[in-house]
Write the structure tokens for this entry.
Amino acid sequence: MKVHLSLIGMGAGHPDHITLQGVAALRRAQLVLVPRKGADKADLADLRLSLCRELLPPGAAVLAPFDMPVRQGGETDYLGAVDRWHDAIAQVWLDTIARHLPEGGAVALLVWGDPSLYDSTLRIAQRLASRVDLSVTVVPGITALQALTAAHAIPLNEINAPVLITTGRQLRADGWPASAETVAVLLDGQGSFQHLDPVGLHIWWGAFLGMPHQLCISGPLAEVSATIVREREQARARHGWLMDTYLLRRARNTVEHHAD
């Protein structure tokens, strides 16, 4: 079976976040995979389906919802649990493709944000290569960090300074990264900024970025941390799911001289 898989970045889920290139790739697909992550996150699948119905001509492609496997395993075997989980997801993809396109064809999958940034879709796709004749096209999308900095109207970096991108898990385990001035945090479902010494730290936080119900909070971490935690929980309760990200910046001890 020969399969061409298009992984299309969908930003934060607003139709305008999908590029024209992404729309074209979606319209070339014969089959669109739509992951379902349980009843408590049904809105995520519904959002993908609504995007497809808005962007695709009627009958242009088969929309194929499938149930996402649940990751098994605890913190002690995190990498092993993720590896087994990815294998299970690849098998579900393959089963769904074989059911709807037994002779193969063009398949698309909408990916939150951009497929290249802290997302495992590309790694899962690689597992199909040993099972089918696979080619993959990646259509870049708006990343969570782009949407965050745009929402707050701030630059990602200070002048001539690096930015470290990490996860909530790493921030909880290791604390503030050594020598970092700016830290961008993704995949944090537990508000890991609460584990940091807030002195001298400023946070820019955002959820549902680019969506009508976008939430943005910024300020000294010591002053806004509790507000962010409260807003996160309330938003999750309202919508059944939440995707958020944030930028942390430590105040510089020196003053930079700006060119005129």
